């Protein structure tokens, strides 16, 4: 419990520090502070995994790798800001990194539950209309994914399903409340990120703060989840 509190506080403080640096300076300073914030939510997850010792659950390992993919995605997406001439490559790599992270989170969830086909099918049934609604709403908001439309749709489906599935499981297993909250925050974060990247609002400081606050809140919740699995 003490380790959880210490690393939780460090993760939150490093996130606040990053947000200040990102808004006031940006550039390489923003990237470095962002990396530090990401390292601390991974450290929180590692502390959670070690708390399970000597029988560290396989699911914890998948979550840790998911957090690492988040760190990689963080770095890559900030590189697109620093090196705009390589925007497409970095954006593509960032989306792939986060997509892999969500698959790792889904794998961890499956490893922790008694599989229920009905829950899975209901989650898929709910995911489809929500994903369609998100894509349709994006068009109404003049968000143009352009050449990344396929990436955006696939990513939306993956993230929405992970959110819905974790919520469905949390209704019968309270251990998953933190994971469910984390995934919902993740989804909200990306809903804010879309107009920033695809509707010309990348320099909007308010959206930047909201996006990162939601994102780091998500990863901190997911990392903390390891303590209760």
Structure, explained:
The protein has 8 helices and no strands. It has 229 residues and is mainly alpha-helical. The chain has one domain. The two termini are 14 Å apart.
> The biggest beta sheet, please?
none
Distance between the termini: 14 Å
Secondary-structure element string: HHHHHHHH
Which percent range fits the helix content?
Answer: over 70%
Would you report the number of β strands? 0
Question: Based on CA inertia axes, which overall geometry fits?
Answer: globular
Radius of gyration: 17 Å
Task: Please tell me the overall pLDDT.
Answer: 91
**Helices and strands: which structural class?**
mainly alpha
- The number of domains: 1
Poorly predicted tracts of residues:
none
Number of helices: 8
- How large a portion of the residues is in β-strands, by DSSP E? under 5%
Characteristic key phrases:
about 230 residues, mainly alpha, about 0% strand
Summary of the model, kept short:
The protein has 229 residues and is mostly helical. It has eight helices and no strands.
């Amino acid at each position: 419990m003490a380790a959880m509190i210490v690393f939780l506080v460090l993760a939150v403080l490093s996130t606040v520090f990053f947000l200040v640096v990102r808004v006031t300076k940006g550039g390489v300073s923003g990237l470095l502070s962002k990396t530090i914030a990401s390292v601390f939510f991974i450290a929180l997850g590692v502390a959670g995994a070690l708390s399970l010792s000597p029988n560290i659950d396989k699911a914890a390992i998948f979550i840790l790798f998911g957090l690492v993919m988040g760190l990689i995605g963080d770095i890559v997406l900030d590189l697109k800001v620093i090196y705009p001439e390589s925007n497409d490559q970095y954006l593509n790599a960032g989306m792939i990194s986060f997509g892999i992270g969500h698959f790792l989170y889904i794998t961890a969830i499956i490893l922790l539950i008694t599989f229920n086909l009905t829950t899975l099918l209901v989650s898929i049934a709910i995911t489809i209309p929500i994903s369609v609604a998100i894509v349709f709403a994006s068009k109404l908001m003049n968000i143009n994914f352009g050449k990344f439309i396929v990436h955006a749709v696939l990513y939306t489906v993956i993230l929405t399903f992970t959110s819905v599935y974790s919520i469905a499981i949390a209704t019968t297993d309270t251990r998953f409340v933190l994971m469910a909250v984390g995934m919902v925050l993740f989804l909200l974060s990306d809903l804010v990120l879309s107009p920033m990247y695809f509707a010309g609002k990348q320099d909007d400081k308010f959206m930047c703060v909201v996006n990162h606050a939601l994102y780091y809140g998500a990863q901190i919740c997911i990392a903390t989840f390891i303590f209760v699995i």
